[in-house]
Design a protein that fits this description.
This protein has 276 residues and is of the alpha/beta class. Helix content is 26%, strand content 23%. Strand 9 and strand 10 form a beta hairpin. The longest helix has 24 residues, at 36-59.
Length: 276
């Protein structure tokens, strides 16, 4: 049985910069309309799942979707960039609508827990969402969502979690984090004499990174599905463009027969000019 593992992360539903399917009815009777940039982001999201649907037919595969954390956003640090700052029910509805295009074509769904500041203590918002969509359960912890997902897809072993073991925050070190994660994972598995995973997937940093072929473990750090926040400007990345997209892996009889990152790049804004 060919399995198409699809990974996407950091959709930040309920953020004014994250994925939003359309107009949102607010709990006070008002209405939120997604920005033009959010509407473009939503178009990319639909295109991503359209591509996955084509791959599903091409490979005659079962699709296992893994949403690798920070699906919902109720940011405790800043309420200024939230659609519904205090009503978790509205945030949950936005997230459910966000996942709907994916849920229409997948055969199994897994949800990893993201950052406490975004999804609540013990990943409570993602736990509720995972239960409501009847995602695959973590039988060891008796939960609907996962801190750490070891996944065997037709003989290909994955290690998936939201938080990376290392990060690279400046442009001239991009890619180094994925290599460090590969080495770290090898040591962690070797210390218990366990088989290395073939693919390690991490998220959280919103940056696209892939390890070099210097280790038997391949690491993919996922881009996000959100636009630049005020935090990004504060840390001196005003000129950068966000990495947008997700990854897929075609697994068959213990072999990774195809994989890729599907990338989208927002257009750089034109300069202001007095000639307008």
């Amino acid at each position: 049985m060919t399995v198409l593992v699809v990974t996407a992360s950091d959709t930040h539903a309920n953020s004014t910069l994250g994925l939003c399917a359309g107009t949102v009815d607010l709990p006070d009777g008002g209405t939120y309309i997604p920005s033009p940039q959010q509407q473009d982001l939503w178009t990319c999201w639909l295109d991503f799942w359209k591509t996955i649907k084509k791959l599903k037919r091409k490979h005659r595969a079962k699709v296992w979707a893994v949403f690798v954390g920070d699906i919902i956003d109720m940011n405790v640090h800043s309420k200024g960039e939230l659609i519904s700052p205090y009503n978790a029910t509205t945030a949950h509805e936005i997230a459910f609508d966000t996942l709907d295009p994916a849920l229409k074509i997948v055969d199994k769904t897994f949800i990893c827990r993201g950052t406490t500041a975004h999804v609540g203590g013990q990943g409570q918002l993602e736990e509720k969402l995972a239960k409501d969509i009847e995602a695959e359960r973590d039988e060891l912890l008796n939960t609907w969502s996962w801190y750490h997902l070891p996944l065997l897809a037709d003989g290909v072993l994955f290690d998936i979690a939201h938080h990376p073991e290392s990060g690279s925050n400046v442009e001239w070190t991009q890619g180094n984090a994925a290599n460090r994660i590969a080495a770290t994972i090898m040591l962690q598995y070797a210390s218990s004499y366990d088989e290395f995973p073939q693919v390690v997937v991490r998220a959280h940093k919103h940056r696209r990174q892939i390890s070099e072929k210097t280790h038997p473990v391949s690491v993919v750090c996922l881009p996000a599905w959100t636009l630049k926040s005020s935090f990004v400007y504060r840390i001196g990345k005003a000129a950068g463009l966000p990495d947008i997209g997700g990854a897929y892996f075609v697994c068959n009889d213990g072999k990774l027969i195809d994989w890729d990152l599907i990338d989208y790049k927002p257009k750089r804004r034109p300069p202001w000019s007095s000639d307008k």
